[in-house]
Amino acid sequence: MTTEPTTDTTKTAPALAVRDLWAGYNGKPVLEAVNLNIDQGDMVGIIGPNGSGKSTLIKTILGLIKPLRGEISILGKEGSPERHLVGYTPQTELVDWDFPVTVADVALMGRYSRRGLFRRTTVEDREAADASLELVKMFDLRDRLIGELSGGQRRRVLLARAMAHNPKLLLLDEPMAGLDATAQHQLLDLLDELRGKGATVVLSTHDLSCVSSRCDKAACLNRRLIAFGKPSEVLNEQVLGETFGTHLLMVHLDGQAYAYQHHVHTEGSEVIETNLPDGHSHAERTLL
Amino acid sequence: MIDVLIEPWEFAFMQRALLAASFAAVVCSVVGVFVVLRGMAFMGDAVAHSSLAGMSVAYFFGGSVFWGAFAWAVPASLAITYISRRANVRLDTAIGIIFASGFAVGIILMSQVSNYTADLFGLLFGNVLGVSWGEVALIGLVAGGVLLVITALYKELLFTAYDATMSAASGIPVRFMQYLLPLLVGITTVASLKAVGIVLVLALLVTPAATATLLARRLPGIITFSVVIGLISTVAGLYLSFHADLPTGPSIVVVATGLFLAALLFSPSKGVVWQAWRSSPLPQE
After folding, report:
1. Rounded distance, CA A27 to CA B81, Å?
2. Cβ atoms B249, B197 nearer than 8 A
3. In chain A, which residues have their Cβ closer than 8 Å to the Cβ of B152?
4. Does B163 contact A96 at a Cβ distance shorter than 8 Å?
5. Measured between beta carbons, which residues in chain B are less than 8 angstroms from residue A120?
6. For residue A161, what is the nearest residue in chain B, using CA coordinates?
7. d(CA B232, CA B257)
8. What digits encode the pLDDT tens for the residues B24-79?
């Protein structure tokens, strides 16, 4: 599926290599025998149902969860992740949006890993944080309190924080959740832009259409890695059925694959993955 | 008029009270901001109440009540954090257990002392007018130590309080910070026991900080406002206590509460009155 690294330099090594990874909580594995090789400059979407281990995988890569078994290397470097290589945005529900900090304060936090304990941030840090805010087009709102931001703006601030120390690998936990279509597209455009500057992007999502239309690779996860590869090759009924544990039907519209699930409800069938474009609800029902 | 302002400070006991209460107010106001933001108010209250056990052990054996409280508060605050993190007990449950058990032990020990009620009253409600120069120095030293730690670790405390997951991912020792903050809260309550007593220390910890969150937007501003409000409450409380012959600790708390109510109603950005004013021209349906 992906090429093995030929030399172990940061230039050619995979952005992320995961070998036989077992990880979980209290000794109980959530992830079992996961192998992944993500090339530099790729945008990879991790999809899977709730509880499939998407967040666990991201947290293990970050070093927040110790693997029970297996190895992770980032840009060819094994052991505990080098903080400056990795940028991370948590799920927005996990962030305290009432906290009295401004957009600029949050971006500056992205620089804290560069300063040790007891050290204050420097002018260089503030400039880097501001540059990061420019990048995500949030500089004009730098003095706003985070609680005053819209959903898309909140996502951008978290991204600015993740980008403030110029990481090579971005790990984004559900960056699309709760955003409307416009905000999703703006965010994906921004991620493409960051990728153009040499970053590798790994994001977890429920949104199959975003993965099929915008990602280079799809990783289908349900505690095990069900499949990994180009979305056009991997996102088929068999793989998605195995990933989501139910039978999903695939629809191809305008060259894109959409999946939906046949739910027997009192009202009839229901689409669970909200990835059919607007205006196709009728088509979808006749197809059923 | 000027006499009213100057007269109290002609007495040495009022000078000592002013210094002791001010030290306590400053450290409480700073630590209190973190307490309010992290929702740790009752943790501080529990540590204060449970340290009655340490105080009464010290009192019973003729030792220093301050160090008795200190020796109890440190393990109590660590225990609350440990229980809530490790055992399958919720934080509020852990707080309840530590709160009541320490208080119960304290009351039992105090009941064995002959002049039980009068001494217990002093511990529960504070007796800042009876503070000695030695105690003033001790309170100042402990308060200064807590403020020094907060200054040195400000960015880590801020980051951990705001987003623990992300700060762990940035290499900040989050577990250490998660024990440190309750420990600082515990030590702060001990430093304030002489000023306001066990029962009212919660007010000194929470009220100025809560008032400040209504007046300032960012954390540094909130901390500054909190300290100023804490100091105003202390000085005004002492005047009130002196001239109206009222108990000192409760006077300070009453002034602080008054300032909170004023901010709640009239804060330029978040005041209830202005908000009602702004939303009033809505068309009637």
Report:
1. 23
2. yes
3. 118
4. yes
5. 155
6. B166
7. 12
8. 999 999 999 999 998 888 888 999 999 999 999 998 888 888 999 999 999 999 99
**How many angstroms separate the CA atoms of B229 and B30, rounded?**
11
Distance CA A209, CA B102 (A): 58
Report the complex ipTM.
0.82
Q: How far apart, in whole angstroms, are the C-alpha atoms of residue A282 and residue A285?
A: 5
Q: Which amino acid is at B42?
A: F
Instruction: Find residues 156-215 of chain A whose CB sits inside 8 Å of chain B.
Output: 161
User: Given B169, B172, B217, which is nearest A88 (Cβ)?
Assistant: B169
Is pTM, for the whole model, over 0.90?
no
Please judge whether A117 and B169 are an interchain contact, meaning their C-beta atoms are less than 8 angstroms apart: no
Looking at chain A, the whole-number percentage of residues with pLDDT higher than 70 is 79
Which one has a higher pLDDT value, A72 or A260? A72
Contacts with B153 from chain A: Cβ below 8 Å: 117-118
Q: Which two tokens stand for residue B207?
A: 């009220």
CB atoms within 10 A of CB B153: 21
B119-176 pLDDT, tens digit each: 788 888 888 998 999 999 999 999 999 999 999 999 999 999 998 888 888 888 899 9
Cα–Cα distance for residue pair A145/A143, rounded to 1 Å: 7
Q: Do residues B29 and B226 lie in contact, with contact meaning Cβ atoms separated by under 8 Å?
A: yes
